[in-house]
Amino acid sequence: MTSAPIAGSRQLNWAGNHEYAFGEPVAPGxxxxxxxxxxxxxxxxxxGTRHSFNALADGERAVSVGSLPTEVVVDRSAMTVxxxxxxxxxxxxxxxxxxxxxxxxxxxxxHISIAGAVATATHGSGDGNGNLATAVAAVxxxxxxxxxxxxxxxxxxxDGCVVSLGxxxxxTRLTLDVEPAFEIGQLVYEGLEWEALLxxxxxxxxxxxxxxxxxxxxxxxxxxxxxxxxxxxxxxxATLAGxxxxxxQRHPLPGLDPVNCTPQLGSPGPWEDRxxxxxxxxxxxxxxxxxxxxxxxxxxxxxxxxALLGVSAQVRPVLLVGEIRTVAADTLWLSPQYGxxxxxxxxxxxxxxxxxxxxxxxxxxxxxPFDPRPHWGKVxxxxxxxxxxxxxxxxxxxxxxxxDPSGRFANDWLDEHLLT
Length: 420
Description:
about 425 residues, alpha+beta, Uridine Diphospho-n-acetylenolpyruvylglucosamine Reductase, domain 3
């Protein structure tokens, strides 16, 4: 059997702000086919659900793992699930439901592929929650030599193989930690003032299992989306740092219909139906947008927020909405949370690349005193100095030299930002 190309010729990312150079990706249906594809291309990149906003996944040729077998195996004794790398988190949640188990967290969108989210350290929110890659217990990948390699937690190279940006090989299967399924309630508090947020940041973010602050970087801070594990007899605070509960469903982007958002108003529901902001089966977020995100040490959140308020005049004209979240520290070499609890500043922009990049110059300058690290899959303006922000880059480059000495899984974007 030969690998079938994915239908269509003009290849765009989800938001439509980036057109890929590779034409039609190939979608092998077996590991043997995939090994043949790897062996027959000088340079090859993996494409997932196309939720990256930059050229990270671009290249001369692309391969999708979406047609590989997606067999899902839940091991209740080990409390893990092993699955195909091309599954989305929403699809995986459907497989976990009958087993009564859950993942520790989800990102805003359940539509993203597991492998893509892990490779870029995509995250949700929560003071005690690591990014999605921290749930990985094992990675199976095909290397440049065609070997199928599995790396388990505890192996010396494991922390370098999880958040790999696709530079080590084609990830085919992943094993993730699971826990007993739980219910979440979600309530939006509105009318949060900046003084209340910055003075009470720790109190606010500890109110729920997952907490997001949505802001327009205007005179008032905005709204707090609190997602709490539901306990017997537990009640919601009547107010939160002066903010009051919303009287109906809300969308993160002010003025948009919240029909595609997960249920709010405090009603309890399964973890997978509350942790994301957006529901499966609906168009997520705005669609025609650009996203950026920067992660700073949590201890600097107040000063970083004040610095961003100082450049808000450059930000607001092209901003749809901003989001502030917290993510716990981890040990993954290329993770923006490596070695430090972080405050994450997310920006959803209008789809105007030139104007956004001018705003980003102001954002990056404002945040530079606080040692920011970018989200790998979103738009930023850092160039060859990006890698210096990650202390374990030398070890990662050595690992990449072992797995892919010829640079088969590199591309121009990686060459510029990381590998040179």
